[in-house]
Amino acid sequence: MSPALAFLGISILGTWGLASIGLIAGGIIMLVAPGDPTTSSSNTLGGIVLIVAGVISGGLMQLTLAPLLGLDPPLPMKAKDILPFTRMTKWANAGNIRDFTDGLPKEVRLRSQRVLIVRDGDNVLATTALCSHARLPLAGLPGSPIKAVPLQDGCVMCPFHGARFEAATGKVIRQPFDSQFNNDHPFLGRLQSKLFFWNKGAEDIQTYPVKIEGGEILVGLPK
Ligand code: FES
């Protein structure tokens, strides 16, 4: 995807998302704010209409724009679906180690799977490229301000809502919407934690075996 297209998509997605949040917030305000007794019944009806419109608008936004941007539905991924390394017997070449910046996670497509390659010096680790909280890309979105976060203490951080995963094991180390992350990121953290009221948890993520042969990174994938 070109950076210009990604920027356009993110802009539309953001505006549409904020409009949906605005509708829901307006509806809630109409429901809870004390109104004129003579018009309170229409306030209630109006509030419900706004909330329903906001929810439908948000759902339509996910259904139409997310696939165009290559985003998956924001549904959690469960640790129970993680496959053991014994099932990873099909090796795919992810590229030469020199093509990966040390410490900066990068997404690659291997046999149609989205894999995150994490180079840590001469060592290379591989995990799924999607965060288990809401299937958003751990390497961020190209052309947008949401970029991959450098490896820290052996952990990959999701740039969307701040979940942290140990790159070697896939174990979730920090849940999304941690108070520190929310303080540092008012939009992606504090505001979106309200939007994700139905889904605030991340589980362990899939990791893949890696071997390096002649500088080439080989990742084991399921057959
Ligand atoms: S999508 Fe990664 S923390 Fe929410």
Descriptive account of the structure:
The protein is of the alpha+beta class. The protein has 2 domains: 3-68; 79-221, Rieske [2Fe-2S] iron-sulphur domain (Rieske Iron-sulfur Protein, 3-layer Sandwich). The protein is 34% helix and 21% strand. The chain has helices at 3-32, 40-68, 179-184, 186-195, and strands spanning 90-96, 106-110, 113-120, 123-128, 155-157, 164-166, 172-174, 207-208, 210-213, 216-221. α1 (3-32) packs antiparallel against α2 (40-68). The chain is elongated. It binds FE2/S2 (inorganic) cluster. FE2/S2 (inorganic) cluster (FES) binds next to loops.
Portion in helices: 25-40%
- The average pLDDT value, as a whole number, equals 89
- The ordered H/E elements are HHEEEEEEEHHEEE
What is the domain total for the residues?
2
Total helices: the number is 4
User: Bound small molecules, which ones?
Assistant: FE2/S2 (inorganic) cluster
The overall strand count is 10
Low-confidence stretches: none
CATH top level of the largest domain? Mainly Beta
CATH superfamily of the largest domain: Rieske [2Fe-2S] iron-sulphur domain
- Range of strand content: 15-25%
Shape: elongated
Rg from Cα: 21 Å
Describe the secondary structure blueprint for this structure.
Blueprint: H1 3-32, H2 40-68, E1 90-96, E2 106-110, E3 113-120, E4 123-128, E5 155-157, E6 164-166, E7 172-174, H3 179-184, H4 186-195, E8 207-208, E9 210-213, E10 216-221
Antiparallel strand pairs: 1-10, 2-3, 3-4, 4-8, 5-6, 6-7, 9-10
The structure holds FE2/S2 (inorganic) cluster (FES).
